[in-house]
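Study both lines:
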Amino acid sequence: MKEEIIIAGFGGQGVLSMGKILAYAALMNDLEVSWMPAYGPEQRGGTANVTVILSDTPISDEPISSPVLDSYDIAVVLNQQSLDKFEPKVKPGGLLIYDSYGIHRAPQRGDITVHEIKAMDATFDMGNSKAYNMVVLGALLGIRDLVPLDAVMRGLKKTLPERHHHLLSMNEEAIQLGMTLVNEK
């Protein structure tokens, strides 16, 4: 298995954190991993994306050659600009996941699998919009079994400062909620 993934949205949506947690979870699950963030100079409101490549090939056998990609197996897009940019770059037969909140033109391609999620609405129901990226990550993991939930939680614990470890159970709840939000278009 080799999965080339792009996660894209606005700064402040937790895009980079989501990619970092996924990368750590994969490392903790003995996968070969590449993680490459990209963002503008703005901290919040500018565009941000992260490329994550996961491979179950043993690290010593065939390392991932480059994190720079022209096309992706999976695209997770959280705003219209990212949808416009990355929908054409999903490989035929690939997967596109999007949160329809703030999207005014739904994906158009017929040669990929498209899943709409209502992650923002779910965070409103939870009463915690800061869990948005964990809901989205849960949806991704609900569609593709990339890494087990326990590895994600270990990755989250590794990336969260210790002063925020009291939020681990809330984040796990958000991930599990995200796994239930999957709707194929």
